């Protein structure tokens, strides 16, 4: 009987859980809100309760736990080292220690965007690639970098924090991290919605914006063009540093092939030196909600 692993993907609004086998196949799934009472219940308490319920009656099948978590994750200590948002009580949360206490099993913890990249390289849209830049476009921008088949983690596991790469440092928009001009202030879905609402108050989310673009609204198409320029310019800088084979784009907007993925590929290739564009592809991530928990299990298996 093959071993099974518990994958846990902790986001700012929900925790996703999955039973994952040694091939990266998700055999069962569950999800629970972590913000159901405005975070009065600490996120980690909700995660522990959800994990206990999900594994009830089958703990003996589980060989280890891989956790993907939002925030700056110190993967050496298995704790949340920092955040740039407003998740009460999340900084300092001892994820690994508490889950090891609960389950008496090996536990690893890594950043959610890093885990997305690992999951996609294992069984998703970057399978077979050794050099990958993965970004998740949403409220902010998350990132993960594979170089030579290894995840770039840095000294504490904090590496790959691409949303806070400065693209407009001199006269940029204030960021939640305390700096100015961070990439995510221009290239996230939040940035797109902010600009769209200033133009038309009815464009309140990505769905409305892309719907208006598909209907042929010239002002919205022009806005999307400027927004994809911001994403492409940030990626071009990273392509020159890491020389990837593939750029993976995750997040809800990644479903927009004609309005996002295809123009983004053209723009990135046009913005880099010709040798860096050879063989480079830009692709939507494939695993969707499973990417983080699958990548967390890959991380567990290799650590």
Class of secondary structure makeup: alpha/beta
Stated plainly, the CATH topology of the largest domain is called Nucleotidyltransferase, domain 5
Main sheet, how many strands, which sense, barrel? 5 strands, mixed
CATH class of the largest domain: Alpha Beta
Low-pLDDT regions = none
What is the tally of beta strands?
Answer: 12
The first-to-last residue Cα distance is 22 Å
Going by CATH, the homologous superfamily of the largest domain would be ATPase, nucleotide binding domain
Q: What percentage of amino acids are in beta strands?
A: 15-25%
Description:
The chain is an alpha/beta fold. It folds into 2 domains: about 5-115 and about 290-300, ATPase, nucleotide binding domain (Nucleotidyltransferase, domain 5); about 125-285, 2-Layer Sandwich (Nucleotidyltransferase, domain 5). It has helices spanning about 45-55, 95-105, 110-125, 185, 190-200, 205-215, 220-240, 255-270, 275, 290-300; strands at about 5-10, 15-20, 25-35, 60-70, 70-75, 80, 105-110, 130-135, 140-145, 150, 245-250, 280-285. The chain has a 5-stranded mixed β-sheet, sandwiched between helices. A 5-stranded mixed β-sheet has the order 10-9-8-11-12, sandwiched between helices. The longest helix has 25 residues, at about 220-240. It is globular and about 55 Å long. It starts with a strand and ends with a helix.
